[in-house]
Design a protein that fits this description.
Elements: E1 8-9, H1 12-21, E2 31-34, E3 39-42, E4 47-51, H2 52-62, E5 75-79, E6 91-97, E7 101-103, H3 112-132, E8 138-150, E9 155-164, E10 172-180, E11 185-193, H4 197-210, E12 211-213, E13 229-233, H5 234-237, H6 243-246, E14 250-255, E15 261-267, E16 273-275
Parallel strand pairs: 7-13, 14-16
Antiparallel strand pairs: 1-15, 2-3, 3-12, 4-5, 5-6, 6-11, 8-9, 9-10, 10-11, 14-15
């Protein structure tokens, strides 16, 4: 769970100075090793990869977030030909969940419409707490792309559309891919705005196909006698285990583009990271 952060505003001049002082981004292409060899990414011709240092350079140096925002980031996937510092640019932030092996036994019986209604209700209930803490309110508008789970590859993706009271002119896109492994989950979260949904749906399909766990770390390599089992299933990946059900508030970190404020917003459920791209 991410820790709450103090609100920070990075001025345009400070951000520009920080960006100018940094070296050019060092993109990698081809076969990329992730998680110390437990997973791999094949960039193909449509994607590029930044390691943890490069991802931090984008998140902190270009987008204007404080260093704490990039502490748990393992890397970033960026579409080829797009500069993540521009208004059109976007990236996929890579993190890892170490909660254990996530059982997919509940996947076949999932009612995603009902799950969305549950999450919307939980989000509304928590708005008063967000206001008391000095944050704006959040409206979970609905699915921007309905959840899909591929039982053969143990991969899942979905997209949520959110509206924040402090940015009424542009809705936030939370596009997520989860790759289930033997005892962990690789988390891929797109940082973008709703207007970029068509492009992101196309490019995230490539990401979904080009990221996988390696032999020994794959989902089917799970050993019930030795490996940890997560306390939630597929529903938990979607953030369905809401605060009102488990008695806690999940802190969700929002990465913003340069010129906006980094917000640590209390949102119910087990979702860890939501990408938010603000106006230029």
């Amino acid at each position: 769970m991410k820790k709450a952060l103090t609100l920070v505003m990075l001025s345009g001049l400070a951000a520009a100075g920080a960006q100018a002082a940094e070296a050019p981004l060092r993109y990698q292409t081809g076969q990329i090793s992730l998680l110390g060899g437990k997973a791999q990414l094949n960039t193909g011709e449509s994607l590029r990869y930044l390691d943890a240092s490069g991802a931090k350079q984008v998140i902190v140096g270009q987008w204007g977030n404080p260093p704490e925002a990039a502490e748990d980031v393992l890397g970033m996937i960026v579409p080829a030909g797009l500069d993540p510092a521009t208004k059109q640019g976007w990236g996929v932030v890579i993190t890892e969940s170490k909660d254990g092996h996530v059982s997919d036994k509940d996947a076949a019986g999932m009612n995603y419409d009902q799950l969305m209604r549950d999450m919307q209700a939980a989000t509304k209930e928590e708005n008063s707490g967000r206001q008391d803490a000095g944050f704006g309110t959040v409206d979970l508008v609905g699915w921007a792309d309905s959840p899909r789970y591929d039982a053969a590859t143990h991969k899942m993706y979905w997209a949520k559309e959110l509206a924040f009271s402090d940015n009424p002119g542009e809705h936030t896109l939370n596009y997520a891919v989860r790759v289930l492994g033997r005892d962990n989950v690789l988390e891929l979260n797109a940082v973008a705005g709703m207007t970029q949904l068509p492009q992101i749906k196309r490019d995230m399909a490539a990401v979904l196909n080009q990221v996988s766990f390696t032999p020994g770390a794959r989902y089917e390599d799970f050993n019930a006698d030795t490996d940890q089992l997560a306390t939630y299933g597929i529903a938990g990946l979607l953030g369905v285990a809401a605060a009102k059900k488990v008695g806690l508030l999940g802190v969700v970190l929002l990465f913003l583009k340069k010129g906006w404020i980094l917000i640590a917003a209390a949102l119910g459920g087990l979702g860890r990271l939501m990408g938010r791209r603000a106006r230029a």
